[in-house]
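User: Teach me something about this protein's shape.
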Amino acid sequence: MALKPIKTVTPDEAIKAVRSGDHLHLSSVATSPQCLVHALCRRGRTGELADVHIHHLHTEGPAPYAGPEFEGVFQLDSFFVGPNVRAQTQRGFADYIPVFLGETQKLYREGYLPCDVAMIQVCPPDDTGLVSLGTSVDATLAAMESARCVIAVINPHVPRTFGDALISLDRINIFVEDDTPLETVHFAAPDTVETAIGRNCAELIEDGATLQLGIGAIPNAVLSQLGGHKNLGVHTEMFADGVIGLEEKGVINGAKKVIDPGKMVATFLLGSRQLYDYTHENRLVLMKDVGYTNDPFLISQNPRATAINSALQVDLTGQICADSIGVKHYSGVGGQVDFFYGASRSPGGKAILAMPSVTSQGISKIVPMLLPGAGVVTTRAHAHWVVTEYGAVNLYGCPLQERARLLAGIAHPDHREALDRAAFERFGSHFHFVKK
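Assistant: First, the predicted structure itself:
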């Protein structure tokens, strides 16, 4: 039976569904519906709207609604602070909701946050009337469940992915058409520091491990070092282009996974057009609700779950700051705790924090104390492996003084003496850092 033609409207007509005081959810990362964002801002300039709250994970592309122009009209309360809203958040024009990534869906499902209008982007429908959320499922399904109105942009550039990404047309109230390509990110080849970090991480990854890797240069550097591994799996919040070559070579096959064997599981994707084309109608890729991908107790069921994340600072006791630079909010809690806890509970699992020893300005990222106001995303009790270009150390089970010795040993050589002195002042005259 043929599907009835879909009636579409313009973005400006669709945005008329938004009312003052509404809470809006935007689909995230590469699938942020930019045609609706711009229409929303056009309406915001008319004076018709006030006190509209916007929620999303990090998004790629412009985010004009977060700027000072719309103060009193739109209030962004994001679940993660991306580069496109960082300055506005630090200046107070936007705000951040501290939340584990896996619990973003819980905010909607348990009523902590209302959702009046969900704005999403989907692929064209198939013959059965199903569309796909493509590269971003995250908390969108939860938002749709409570929304008064769901506005969907049908875009042929959205890949048809499977799992929780597939939704029925009858869950959508308003349709808009657009053919703007999805936002893409291209990563440069790893430099010497990133390559060394990747090599140190790869030495910790066992054959048969199930991987969680974030985004950026270091995850790509790790993946580039895994060509000789066997039977790796993927269960992660996101992945990028680096997995493609390893899957095609058979290094990644999910053969040892207990949960979703043979599948690469994620809740969102970000990379090049090649990545989006690779995931289109690819049965090996399973896109799931963020409450599933980031459930620590589910993560722990895969053997040798190995989580690799990064940080802004680590203090000498193992406290990890990953969301702020002092009082200036920089990113978010994200999925670090979800996956560190899940990996640490997994049989043979490893929770790995990987980062350069210094910032681009040469400031040590291993510090005596976190900056005042810095957020402890991962506690010292959750910290296990820490990796820099100078080596890898395991803090788990180590007392505080031993942690200080281990961490100073993988700090940049220019900063080891200062860290040794700080530890001596903290722990007393019996503290001696041996490794110079």
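Now, about its shape. The longest strand covers residues 117-122. The chain has a mean pLDDT of 95. If you'd like, I can walk through any region in more detail.
User: That's plenty for now, thanks!
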